[in-house]
Amino acid sequence: MPFRDLQCALYNGHPVLGTQKTYQWVPFYGAPNQCDLNCLAVGHDFYHSFGRVLDGTPCSPGAQGLCVAGRCLSAGCDGLLGSDAREDRCGRCGGANDSCLFVQRVFRDAGAFAGYWNVTLIPEGARHIRAAHRSRNHLGIAGSEGGGAALAARIPRGGRWQGRGGGQGHFQGARADLSLAALMGGDGRYVLNGNWAVSPAGTYEAAGTRVIYTRATGPEETLRAAGPTSEDLLLQVLLQEPNPGIEFEFWLPRERYGPFQAQAQVLGWSPRQPQPREVDPQPLESPTVIPPPIPIPTPEPCPPCPDTRGRAHRLLHYCGSDFVFQARVLGRVRQAQETRYEVRVQLIYKNRSPLRALEYVWAPSRCPCPPLALHRDYLLAARRLISPDGTQDRLLLPHAGYARLWSPAEDSRVRLAARHCPL
């Protein structure tokens, strides 16, 4: 018998309310103070308060709080009643979200054919998972018993896989009862919306967590899961009309982000700033007249850069930037009034969203200040710049920003700057 029921039952058969009439009592949870022993008379429409409940009584059925000295106290993640300690997004008690990374992207592939298309891998250990879109398309999740690292597909008889890059694709020429993508290392299975059948809204068990699947009256669909996942999951979409964009996000332990990047490449994600495609050279026709060469004007020399040395400058850019990292410059391209550097990220000091191993960093001038030399290591403070239509997502190195040649001394200075940034 629940503890509160037992306390109410102690008054069964005993006269109360100043009369000799007796009642049978059961808990009543509609009273204002849930830490009073409020008991309802069975068969009657009134309740009576017998004072405070005993310490340790749950505040209400299914609640985490306990009544102590007439107050409802909740236990923090440290197990102490009345503690304000809470788990951060990484699952650490009292943490500061610094042991995991936030992955947030929009899948915009239009899909050449109707069918299932891979959206993203949700790796083992992911938390606070969310995916949403507004269309008549449907999201689906495939899991794996084996939790393998590579993607595979089971193609039904008469079906043919159509895809690109080893990842995104669908089945063509197969019947509607086909079984689609699975994770290598176990038999593929769908958690919901698999085999061309739309699942009802509700709660589903998958990878050691509960997936809450909702569909609004309009063309809106949402998946949520608290995590952490105990194995990899593959999020797919069943395209029936043009894809307006599928938003997805989750938090991932830092040590799992590298393998996730490798899987993202298997799924065919393009880099943040894709390089232009190379065009095969076309044979030139034999000219009859060769025009005289047009002299190319010599560009004006770049003006000197302003002095950006000093602790105040370092602190300003470290605290105001989205990213601070050590990188080696691999390439440099000047495009109109911009300069684009290709860099290899070697060490991350600060990041508000995940960084890839290879990134493009843009400087808003053909004469960037300070200029970066090829094949040298730098400490860079960059900002994230997203265009209003969401088609461009860039790392921006501001003019006269923070870009210093990396050295042990500069490493110490930037770590010291991190301690002085306001939270």
Structure summary:
It contains four helices and 26 strands. With 423 residues, it is mostly beta strands.
List keywords for this structure.
single chain; about 425 residues; mainly beta; 5-stranded mixed beta barrel; about 35% strand; ADAMTS_ADAMTS-like
Question: Explain this structure to me?
Answer:
- The protein has 423 residues and is mainly beta.
- 10% of the residues lie in helices and 37% in strands.
- It is built from 4 helices and 26 strands.
- The protein has helices at 3-9, 254-266, 311-320, 408-418, and strands at 25-27, 36-41, 47-52, 57-58, 66-68, 71-73, 100-107, 115-122, 127-134, 138-143, 151-153, 160-164, 168-172, 181-183, 189-192, 202-206, 209-215, 220-225, 233-239, 246-253, 323-335, 338-351, 358-363, 377-386, 393-396, 403-405.
- The strands form 7 sheets. It has a 6-stranded antiparallel β-sheet. It has a 5-stranded mixed barrel with strand order 21-22-23-25-24.
- A hairpin with a 2-residue loop joins β5 and β6 (71-73).
- The longest helix has 13 residues, at 254-266.
- The protein is elongated and about 105 Å long.
- The chain starts with a helix and ends in a 5-residue tail after the last helix.
- Residues 144-187 and 270-290 have low confidence and may be disordered.
- It is found in: Secreted.
- Pfam families: ADAMTS_CR_3, ADAMTS_spacer1, NTR.
- InterPro entries: ADAMTS/ADAMTS-like, ADAMTS_ADAMTS-like, ADAMTS_CR_3, ADAMTS_spacer1, Netrin_domain, Netrin_module_non-TIMP, TIMP-like_OB-fold.
